[in-house]
Design brief:
The protein is mainly α and about 625 residues long. It folds into 2 domains: about 230 residues, Serine Threonine Protein Phosphatase 5, Tetratricopeptide repeat, CATH 1.25.40.390; about 375 residues, no CATH class. It has 24 helices and 14 strands. The strands form 7 sheets. A two-stranded antiparallel sheet has the order 1-3. A two-stranded antiparallel sheet has the order 2-12. β10 and β11 form a beta hairpin. The longest helix has 26 residues. The protein is globular. Keywords: Cell outer membrane, Membrane, Signal. Its main location: membrane. It comes from Mucinivorans hirudinis.
């Protein structure tokens, strides 16, 4: 696949960059190179790679609006690192030069209509290839139909109503035919489901990619799991009876969004999730457990759990990954930005500027498995959380014993420690794997080794995203950072389980069924079930026994389990909870100070604002001018 992706960039540049007539690229007639591209199996395989190349880069601050757009992350203000996604969260999205523009491919985005066009070219020409078996030809067709569905869905999720492109228009097409209009949201979703159903027909896709060169290519579990995800979105409030969009109408005065809630969509989402889970299990996909971490060293159960939770994301091709994007690996640059410096010799190569906001840190449960503000133990009172505390012997796997850190950082659930790193916290890995007591220690107060190396190269919040760094990634010497790269998980089984729990809840399934699937995730994280935890430790013990209460729990469980992976940005939009959740102060510790009391004072870094227009990205102004039939998204 590496050879494919190297070749496809040049191929795309040579063949297609100059054939665009408008915002939806059309195909010229009688281009000899198209026939050449499908002259045999080898050249057709190159074009298959071209179609994969259009996949949005999920592991990129400037390419993926979701990785920073909800402000789970914050960068130092004096550095050059504020990326497109974070600037979206800061309120800098615009129509003249949109950030992460996937409509026409600027501002860090890719032209997904160009990707759809190349998929159509493939489907129109693959029958010309003579040296392909029926099985392989049909497998490739299924892959391309999936990619075409994925690109359409990405556009729907980002822009709302779009124009579906069933086939390419010839370059001599009438101008009026080229100036396509946006279609109703339900019509757009219907086409995505149509493509996914076609991709699943005939059972041509494999359960697994057995050959390493094919890792990252689409399999049957990928398609079915994505179909489940699309079904959940289609059933969610943003797309299901969204009466707030009643004034957003087409040229005939009809709303783009359906105005009547359809409960059957949630039942269909349940069905699709069940089929996806079944096929994933058949393929050997399962939650990454502590016993799955193999090491020659004697380490504690606490550390083993911590590593397992990290590995569910950052271990290459691990058993929980449904679809890893082999074209978009978490490379040394990304991981280095997420990892603190541990000794002075690392000052030169280390960037270390990916700061996770305190808003995320406060989200995780207490060690009792309930929210901070609900735990009945007085040590979690708000007056205590922002004071300091000295780490004792019982804290030795998470803290440097005898050192002081914020009370907020103590006695939290295991995912807090596997996801985040902080001042005086332990970091297992990075070249120290044999002893989980004498590990690296983060020292982040101003002037210390984990603090400012150069302007803009430090965590502006006092927290780092440990879960995004592989345990084997390390500094080899003052000039070399060696990363154990891994494909960004476009979907993993934990996300699918939580989609299923949500669909069960919203379809009025017994609450016990919902709790069971949430508890699978909690159990892997070392927590008791929701009913037991809330009954024994919460000031609101009846919460899991009510549908509204379980909704709060399911949503929070997604926000915790999938934090820093880009789900939160999309989830709060499809739930229509963004106005409540994203109008808030973005907080961190006062990291540019030395004294303990000063460092552990809460600092407001930004006042985040979410407007109704922010549910969807703007269509580039230039496209509206070029095509008068296009209607801009509300508020833009």
């Amino acid at each position: 696949m590496k050879k494919i992706y190297k070749f496809l960039i040049a191929l795309t540049a040579l063949l297609w960059v100059n054939v665009s007539c408008n915002y939806l690229d059309v195909v010229p007639d009688d281009v000899p190179t198209i026939d050449n591209a499908f002259s045999d199996r080898y050249t057709a395989l190159q074009f298959l790679g071209t179609c994969y190349w259009h996949l949005p880069r999920l592991a990129g601050w400037s390419e993926n609006p979701a990785i920073g757009g909800a402000l789970e992350v914050w960068f130092p203000s004096e550095g050059p690192h504020f990326a497109n996604s974070i600037n979206i969260g800061r309120g800098f999205q615009n129509t003249s030069n949109p950030l992460t523009n996937y409509w026409s491919g600027t501002g860090g985005g890719k032209n997904l209509y160009a990707g759809i066009r190349d998929c159509n070219i493939f489907l129109e020409n693959i029958d010309k290839v003579k040296d392909l078996s029926v099985q392989e030809r049909q497998r490739w067709i299924s892959e391309i139909k999936f990619l075409k569905a994925y690109y359409h869905f990405y556009l729907i999720r980002m822009y709302g109503p779009i124009h579906v492109v069933r086939e390419n228009l010839p370059v001599h097409a009438d101008t009026e035919k080229i100036r396509w209009e946006r279609q109703k949201v339900d019509e757009c979703y219907a086409y995505v489901f149509e493509l996914l159903n076609e991709a699943l027909m005939g059972d041509y896709l494999p359960l697994n990619n057995e050959v390493s060169a094919e890792f990252g290519r689409v399999t049957r579990p990928v398609v079915q799991s994505f179909k489940a995800e699309v079904a959940v979105y289609f059933a969610s409030p943003l797309f299901n009876g969204n009466t707030e969009m009643v004034a957003f109408v087409d040229h005939d005065g009809k709303p783009f969004f359906n105005q009547t809630f359809d409960a059957n969509r949630w039942k269909e989402a349940v069905k699709q999730c069940e089929e996806a889970i079944q096929i994933c299990h058949s393929a050997g996909i399962s939650l990454y457990q502590p016993s799955d971490y193999q090491t020659q060293y004697q380490i504690s159960d606490i550390t083993r759990l911590n590593v397992a939770l990290r590995n569910s994301v950052s271990d290459r091709w691990n058993k929980e990954t449904i679809w890893g994007l082999s074209t978009h690996v978490m490379d040394w640059g990304f991981q280095q930005a997420c990892q603190p410096r541990f000794e002075a010799s690392e000052m030169k190569p280390a960037k270390s500027y990916y700061g996770i906001t305190m808003n995320v840190a406060e989200l995780f449960y207490t060690e009792n498995g309930v929210p901070l503000n609900e735990d009945t133990d007085s040590k979690y009172s708000r007056d205590n959380l922002y004071t300091t505390r000295t780490a004792g012997e019982k804290d030795k796997y998470y803290f440097s014993v005898g050192e002081q850190s914020a009370t907020l950082n103590f006695d939290r659930e295991p995912r807090f420690y596997s996801t985040l790193s902080f001042d005086r916290g332990k970091w297992y890995g990075a070249g120290r794997l044999s002893d989980d007591v004498n590990t690296w220690v983060v020292k982040a107060r101003y002037g210390e080794v984990s603090s400012v190396a150069n302007p803009g190269e430090y965590s502006a919040t006092g927290y780092w995203p440990k879960k995004l760094v592989n345990v084997k990634s390390e500094f080899k010497d003052p000039n070399t950072y060696t990363a154990e790269t891994y494909p960004f998980p476009a979907m993993r089984l934990a996300a699918l389980y939580l989609y299923y729990a949500e669909a069960l809840l919203e379809s009025d399934a017994p609450l016990a069924d919902v709790q069971m699937w949430v508890d699978k995730i909690r159990s892997r994280a070392g927590l008791k079930g929701v009913v037991e935890s809330w009954q024994n430790h919460s000031t609101n013990p009846a919460l899991p026994t009510m549908k509204s209460g379980m909704r709060r729990i399911v949503h929070r469980e997604r926000n915790i389990e999938l934090s820093c992976e880009g789900y939160y940005y999309w989830d709060v939009r499809r739930w229509k909870s963004a106005p409540e959740e994203l109008n808030r102060p973005i907080k961190g510790w006062n990291v540019l100070t030395t004294a303990l009391a000063d460092y552990y004072s809460v600092k407001t870094l930004h006042n985040q604002t979410f407007y109704p227009r922010d549910y969807f990205s703007p269509i580039p102004e230039k496209e509206i001018i070029n095509n008068p039939k296009l209607i801009q998204n509300p508020g833009w």
